[in-house]
Amino acid sequence: MDDKLNLCLGSEGELSLAGLRPFAELEELVVDNNLLGNDLRLPRLANLHTLTLNKNQISFGAPSPLAYLSLLGNEACPNQLVSPDKDEDDYQRYRYFVLHKLPHLKFLDSRKVTRREVTEARTRGAFMKVVKPKTEGDASPAPGLQTSQRRSPNVCLQSGEM
Fold first, then answer.
1. Could you tell me the pTM of the whole model?
2. Which of 34, 56, 63, 117 could disulfide-link 14, Cβ–Cβ 3.0 to 4.6 Å?
């Protein structure tokens, strides 16, 4: 008989995992399709090595000593399931960033973590976080600039060009 303790709460619409505290020996937890967000708090589960959070409302964040993690279908995981405008390069940058933050992962989303990814994540993973540029409406103009100066692009002139 398998001694593992597994729990699957997929498609239940749960908004909290507070009731997991009595499951101290839990090793695998599947909480897909549960509307969980960044406010997710997991109790300390020392034996937890696999957590799947597919199709929730997470933009980023996860516990640290995990070996297996799946975030497919969440905003934090830039793939074509969530955003058709994302490509494989975006997804690979995401993998490097996650592996930088969670270096013990052996499996991320649908793929095994490679040695090359771990090396790259260690070197450059901190710089791989995908950020959205601010739109023109979000940016506040610098104080003291006139309206025409606010909208003008920066132009660098070499000496003698004026």
1. 0.51
2. 34
